[in-house]
C-alpha cells in the first residue's frame, strides 16, 4: 500500500526530532508500505531566511526569493534521507525539480498543476523511501516556484493524489484539528473527523493547521487526510468526504 506522510517544521526542528520522524517513516516502510515523506524546512528556517533577504533587498525579486526559500526544504529532505540511511534503510531525497512537480508561474504562491515524469515511481519501484522537499515545484521554464506559506501540506496531498496513495498523514505539533486554535483557546475541542467542506472553510478563515489549497486538492481527488501529532500517539483527525470513509491502517 502506498502512503504519503508529511512533517512540518516544528516536527523537524532538531536532530532528535528528525530521528523521531524518521522512526515513524521507518515503521510504515517496514510494515510493507511504499512511503513518500514530504518535509518542511526545519523550525523557523523560512522566517529566518526571509529576514536575511530583508537585509539584502528591500523589494526582493520573486524568482530569486523562491530559489532561495526552497533551499530550506531541500536541506530538510537531504537530512531526513541521511537519517533514514543511518538506520539502514534505502532512502533518496528529491527536490521539486527532480520529482517533476509542475506548477503555474506565480512565484511565491504557485498552484500545483501535475507531476511530470516517473522519477518518484522509479525510486519506489527500486524499493526506496522517497523524501520529497515540500513547498516547491517548477514552472514551465523549470524555474523554482514556491507554493505559499504553509505550502508543504499541499505538496503532500498533491503527491498522494497523483501517486494514488491510500492516504496522506500530516504530522504536526498539535494532535489533530480542533474547532478553534488550541494554542489560543483553552476550551478548543478536538474533532475526530472533519468533512472537506468544513475543513476548507476553516483553512480559508486562517486555521493554520492545513494549507487551504491542500484541502481543495484533497476534496477534488478524494484524498483521505489524517492530521496527527508527531510527538504523541493517537488517531488525530480524519478529513474525508464522509465520516464512515476513514480506515485504520
Ligand atoms: P506545521 O509546521 O506542522 O505545518 P503549523 O504551525 O503550520 O504546523 O500548523 C499547526 C498549528 O496550527 C498549531 O500549532 C495550531 O496553533 C494552529 N491551528 C490553528 N487553528 C487550528 C485548529 N483549528 N486546529 C488545530 N490547530 C490549529
Ligand atoms: N517552510 C514553508 C513555510 O514556513 C512551508 C511549510 O512549512 O509548509 O511556510
Ligand atoms: Mg503548516
Description:
It is a single chain. It contains 8 helices and 12 strands. It has 249 residues and is α/β, with parallel strands linked by helices. The strands form 3 sheets. An 8-stranded mixed β-sheet has the order 3-6-2-1-9-11-12-10, with helices on both faces. Strands 4-5 form a two-stranded antiparallel ribbon. The mean pLDDT is 97.
Keywords:
249 residues; alpha/beta; Carbamate kinase; two-stranded antiparallel ribbon; 12 strands; globular; binds adenosine-5'-diphosphate; binds aspartic acid; binds magnesium ion
Brief description of this entry?
The protein has 249 residues and is of the alpha/beta class. Helix content is 37%, strand content 21%.
Topology:
Elements: E1 2-7, H1 15-30, E2 34-39, H2 45-54, H3 62-86, E3 91-94, H4 96-99, E4 101-103, E5 112-115, H5 119-125, E6 129-133, E7 136-138, E8 144-146, H6 152-162, E9 167-172, E10 193-195, H7 196-204, H8 212-221, E11 225-229, E12 237-240
Parallel strand pairs: 1-2, 1-9, 2-6, 3-6, 9-11, 10-12
Antiparallel strand pairs: 4-5, 7-8, 11-12
Helix pairs in contact: 1-3, 2-3, 6-8, 7-8
The protein binds adenosine-5'-diphosphate, aspartic acid (ASP) and magnesium ion.
